[in-house]
Specification:
Elements lengths: L19 H4 L2 E3 L4 E4 L2 E5 L5 E4 L20 E6 L3 H10 L11 H13 L5 E4 L8 H7 L5 E4 L12 H10 L9 E3 L3 E3 L3 E5 L6 E7 L2 E16 L3 E5 L22 E5 L3 E18 L2 E20 L12
Parallel strand pairs: 9-16
Antiparallel strand pairs: 1-2, 2-3, 3-5, 4-11, 5-6, 6-7, 8-10, 10-14, 11-12, 12-15, 13-14, 15-16
Helix pairs in contact: 2-3
Length: 317
């Protein structure tokens, strides 16, 4: 018996960077099932359980990385009655001696379910034609059919830990930097404006498929300050930006550690913080690095005025 290989439209698209249901010609957006004609399939990624900082990097500023196509596709073929009837009609004459991929055992289970139906769904597990040879070999180790009770998942192939880590990376939320300044709304020519940030020490996301779990960790490693043309930026920033809080205490012409020293007046000054995150992953299947994530946050609308001395009373606009 030859393991059936099906093409299910975008189910086999390299990387599967979008939910299958979102790209298939006909699909129920709420199920994660994609259909082409009368054939439907579910990607293995639909069965991954994510925990931790789940979302999209910085609200979508970063480009997802390609994830390798999964080795198997899951083709729902019916419930305890309709799915069992299909299996028996196709393979009812298969003997135990001639059976591959546990088809004989599935036929016996289908007969029992026809006699006493229970809640659940039959899945056929065809090989993904776009998977690597090693991935297809992993899929071929699984039974061709699986009856899955509600709330459970079909048998899972051994997916490379790196692939699972890349999937988690694509679904990780890292917050954009929120920039606040001292002074908050107004600056002065030749005086420093200090930048403060909300950067966390790290964020993590874990992805579990079957018995395998990997964890992806992002840590901020560099903050770079830039500003509008009216100011000169300085980037000796800590995790939270400047070491100094409150109003600036340095004198005229003294730059901030993290912020901008204004060189000219403006009615719309801005300060941007760019935070670079290093990303690593680890699990029982190994560990390594993933692409850095670079996110920006901007504080705009700053008014910068000239300093004028009026009878020695200090800055005046």
């Amino acid at each position: 018996m030859k393991r059936r290989v099906i093409f299910a439209g975008v189910a086999a698209i390299a990387g599967l960077l979008v939910p299958l249901a979102a790209a298939a010609p006909a699909a129920d957006a709420g199920t994660g099932v994609g259909c082409v004609g009368s054939q439907c399939s579910v990607s293995v990624w639909q069965f991954v359980k994510l925990s931790g900082s789940v979302g999209t990097n910085g609200g979508g500023d970063t480009v997802p990385i390609d994830v390798q196509p999964p080795p198997c596709l899951w083709d729902p073929i019916g419930d305890a009655t309709t799915g069992s009837q299909y299996i028996i009609s196709q393979f009812g004459s298969v003997t135990q001696q001639d059976s591959l991929f546990d088809v004989y055992q599935s036929v016996q289970q289908a007969k029992k379910l026809l006699a006493n139906p229970t809640a659940g769904t039959w899945y056929e597990l065809p090989v993904n034609p776009n998977a690597s040879p090693a991935g297809q070999a992993e899929c071929a180790k699984l039974p061709l059919f699986a009856f899955v009770p509600p709330g459970q998942t079909p048998p899972m192939p051994n997916v490379p830990a790196r692939d699972l880590a890349e999937y988690a990376y694509n679904h990780m939320f890292i917050p954009k930097p929120v920039v606040t300044t001292s002074p908050a709304l107004k600056g002065w020519v030749n005086l420093a404006t200090y930048v403060h940030l909300n950067t966390p020490r790290q964020v993590t996301i874990s992805a579990t498929l079957g018995n395998e779990t990997v964890t992806v960790t992002a840590r901020p490693v560099k903050t770079t300050i830039s500003g509008s043309s009216a100011g000169t930026p300085y980037s000796d920033c800590g995790l939270k930006g400047s070491r100094y809080r409150g109003a600036p205490t340095t004198g005229a012409g003294v730059p901030p550690d993290c912020g901008v020293l204004w060189q000219a007046p403006t009615t719309d000054g801005s300060v941007t913080a760019t935070v670079t995150w290093n990303v690593t992953w680890g699990g029982a299947g190994g560990g390594g690095t993933l692409p850095d994530v670079v996110l920006n946050g901007t504080k705009g609308g700053l008014r910068v005025a000239e300093i004028q001395s009026v009878n020695g009373n200090g800055p005046q606009q």
